[in-house]
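job 3f2a | input accepted
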Amino acid sequence: MDHSREIILLNISGEDKPGLTASLTGILAQYDVNILDIGQAVIHEDLGMGILFEVPEKEETSPILKDLLFKSYELGLNIKFTPISETRYTEWVGHQGKERYIVTLLSRKLTADQLSHVTQIMSDQGLNIDFITRLSGRVLLGFERESDKSVVEFSVRGNPKDVEKMKKDFIDIAKTSEIDIAFQTDNIFRRNRRLVCFDMDSTLIQTEVIDELAERAGVGEEVKAITEAAMRGEIDFSESFIKRVSLLKGLDESVMKDIAETLPLTEGAERLFTTLKKYGYRTAILSGGFNYFGNHLKEKLGVDYVFANELEIKDGKLTGKHVGEIVSGEKKAELLRFLADKEDIHLEQVIAVGDGSNDLPMLSIAGLGIAFHAKPKVRESAKHHISNIGLDAILYLLGFRDREINL
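job 3f2a | predicted structure (407 res):
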């Protein structure tokens, strides 16, 4: 091998302590080496570091390695040297052109079984793992809480052999292993989302408001049956909406205020909105529900835009009719496009979140479309799904770590 191209891979392991990197790179600096790559990970105060460096033509390799060995012994570290051929290095550099993806695993508690299944799928698809990062905070043993979560992010490289099969395999594991798996292309849009659009009922809140109104009107079972059929996509949303609203005729307006004040927020909603607001994201509610309740959430959560349906009220009573255009699935997609244009952003920078079949049009055009605790048909049709943890899981799909999230 040409002396001007002598390349060494340095692997260091041992107990982590301040100053290790400075000490080792200080030695390399004395010999004017060129750093080609560097990486480090610390797990439970145990350090693993790699430094790939090129020895200048004017320098001999032996004194460098001797000094590094002496310093590592002094610091109580294990050290290993591996010569890398120029051919092998050139091949490694050539891998830079391959596609990169982010695979995120989200669960209440991460198990070896879950990791084994997911990493095997990635291997079968010809994907190589470059980095593994824990996004969720550390959990104390014996103090488990219902809201605990364990989230790990993989940065992978390669071209999947069959993307559709891979996604189906991920969904199959999710059904049986209480884990959610997101697969995203790692590009500039993934790192620069700016607008998040939410469905309201059964997404932002843990109820269907129209069902609550129907209960108060004494037509609960009838309306609930129509709602469920509409969410499953068995009947047209607009048709079902008109039928359900007509059954509310005569309900007192004061009932709406009572329901609004006790709306059950979905787990993680407040944590999500606090964080999104802090980092400058814009938010919107695009709902087939009602403006009255959407505006209540706007005040409570600091939502920027609300688009929903308007109930007609006369003499303090619901008339059984609505005012204006119905916010159907197609209308939600139209509104999402409108807001992206208004905010002067690309559709790839938009996140859409919903649970029903009427959310699929907006989920399909957003850069990140998420079926949240959705019906099976919706979960299988959407690009991504979250079924095991709360709404704040969205933050992990954006790459946030717990230490960056407002608790």
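job 3f2a | The chain has a mean pLDDT of 91.
job 3f2a | closed
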